[in-house]
TrEMBL record:
Signal peptide: none annotated. Residues 125-347 form the EML-like second beta-propeller domain. The keyword Repeat applies. GO terms for cellular component: mitotic spindle. It comes from the Eukaryota. This is Echinoderm microtubule-associated protein-like CG42247. One of its GO terms (biological process) is microtubule cytoskeleton organization. The gene is DCX-EMAP. One of its GO terms (molecular function) is microtubule binding. SUPFAM superfamilies: WD40 repeat-like (SSF50978). Transmembrane segments: none annotated. Keywords: Repeat, WD repeat.
Amino acid sequence: MVNGDSANRCSTRSSSDAPYVLAQHLASLSKRIRSPAGEVRSLLATQEGTLISGGQNQLKAWDSHQRFQQLAAVDFTEGDIRALQFHQEGGASLYVGTNNAILEGTMQSSFKILVQGIDTIICDLAIDFQGQSFVTVDKGGNICRWDIRYLMWKTKPQVDTICVGFHPEGRAITAGGTNGKLLVLHSDGGLVVATIFVADAALKALAYNTDGSVLAVGCEDGNVYICGSKNRGYLYKIHAVLKNEWPILQIDWSDDGEYLQSCYRKEDFCEVALWKVAESKRITSALSQNRNWPQHTCTLSHNILGIWKRIEGVFYLSCHRNGSKLATGAKDGFIRIYPYPYPEADQVRIFYYTRRVQ
């Protein structure tokens, strides 16, 4: 029998019940055995006599026939190891459970993530309509690409990022940094291939026009930077600046690429601005009713005023249009589905979550 404890010790007992303690503080054994740093949270024994132990960010294999000599060690970046289980009896493949992920692999090769948990706030999400996948960025600066069921890849650039965009061709991903820089990542693996300086303030929102030839970048300084996009989303150059005074929250393009609407925070309130992009001119926001907004992520607009009138006291944090439907996420934890456009209060479907939906 083998026990692991919080004092960084592994203890074994033979059939005669004689204790054999593996501990760092025993000089006679310290040269032979080094337990994982920190607590030993999980143990697993193979039929061949190999003992596998899981500690803080590390998995180790020991040979029980050679006084528990260490055979191999694998480091993990997915958090502390909490549980171990064989894929099948007698096999070498393992399931490893960490703080926020489940991985599969072997000590001889490598481990891949099967299930990725999220233990912090999701700051932004962008959809790849071509490949049925999406990309997220969380408060910890992790950028993840997902398909419908699994995590495809995960990366954490050196620049802290808080917003993401997906080029319509599905080749390039953009991420807005808190330092005012725009990162361009390869969509296949998350490699950062370019860094572009945009502003001296945090970048808060990213939106491509329909064909991906222009990227609008909303900034904490209140401005929207219009960037020309070339080479399938890997090359950018600032062409114009739509000047405002208040931090940008969301941005939408009209289907013809001639107009842009931006939602911004003014003190304790949200307001919306409508722009004629070619002239860098702000026009009356009421004209947005005459334009078609394919995605519509702005939570305040004349086309969706009905969502604010429908239920008193609800504060909406996000929304997204899909054809004739508008999905909204609110601070009270509800997802509400409205018809689109929705200028007046009418029918609605409601889904409840225990936390606020961002």
